């Protein structure tokens, strides 16, 4: 089947990239004038083997709020910056990415996090903080955008990963799309493991209305688009 070609390697076909043309590398993330600083944390100390054995998709959450320290840890675990070089043009994160291109922005739809107003936020990884996108209770809208999946709106927070394809296209052209799909899996698996280590639950969601999710988060659906999401909540 022609569509299965996406799954195959075409690395030998990579040529005439914007990188080779000397075009400037795209920024690793958008800046924010007013950043809500996230707290330090000392969490996630459960043994790795135990975490892997316990890891599973969980769709039932309690009404217990998530702490800001827990949210800080989960954001660091999924897109945290370990170090950077070349005047912050190249970053090394807590997850792998093809050519260190890291083509994702992390948005949060917050419902029940201590110290945070309900609303939509964007993670600013270089400052380990949050940028408020818009306040409000978006429970009904995100349930609608995820095709009626009620458990998404019953979480404490929904992680929404937005792909910014050009960050990878700049280096890998047409082979970028397979790489982006692989990379977002790395990110979500780290969320599963990190959430499990602090007695939270999550469940990856790939079934959603693209236009509604893009509109909810506030991206154009062309240069930036929602690619994956995962609600997180406290569990018994």
Automatic annotation (TrEMBL):
Tell me the NCBIfam families matching this sequence. antibiot_sagB
The species this protein was found in: Thermosipho africanus (strain TCF52B)
Task: Cite a single GO MF annotation.
Answer: oxidoreductase activity
InterPro entries found in the cross-reference section = Bacteriocin_Proc_Enz, Nitroreductase, Nitroreductase-like, SagB-type_dehydrogenase
Full protein name: Nitroreductase
Q: Which CDD domains match?
A: McbC_SagB-like_oxidoreductase (cd02142)
Nitroreductase domain: residues covered: 52-234
Gene3D superfamilies linked to this entry: NADH Oxidase
């Amino acid at each position: 089947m022609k569509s299965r070609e996406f799954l195959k390697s075409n690395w030998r076909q990579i040529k005439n990239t914007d990188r080779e043309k000397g075009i400037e590398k795209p920024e690793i993330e958008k800046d924010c004038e007013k950043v809500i600083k996230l707290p330090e944390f000392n969490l996630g100390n459960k043994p790795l083997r135990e975490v892997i054995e316990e890891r599973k998709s969980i769709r039932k959450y309690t009404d217990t709020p998530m702490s800001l320290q827990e949210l800080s840890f989960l954001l660091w675990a999924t897109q945290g910056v370990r170090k950077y070089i070349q005047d912050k043009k190249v970053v090394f994160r807590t997850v792998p990415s093809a050519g260190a291109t890291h083509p994702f922005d992390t948005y949060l739809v917050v419902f029940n996090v201590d110290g945070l107003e309900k609303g939509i936020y964007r993670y600013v990884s270089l400052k380990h903080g949050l940028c408020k996108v818009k306040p409000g209770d978006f429970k009904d809208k995100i349930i609608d955008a995820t095709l009626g999946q009620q458990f998404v709106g019953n979480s404490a927070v929904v992680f929404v990963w937005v792909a910014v394809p050009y960050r990878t296209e700049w280096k890998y052209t047409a082979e970028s799309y397979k790489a982006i799909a692989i990379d977002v899996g790395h990110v979500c698996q780290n969320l599963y493991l990190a959430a499990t280590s602090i007695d939270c639950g999550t469940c990856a969601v790939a079934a959603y209305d693209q236009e509604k999710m893009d509109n909810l988060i506030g991206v154009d659906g062309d240069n930036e688009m929602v690619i994956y999401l995962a609600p997180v909540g406290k569990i018994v």
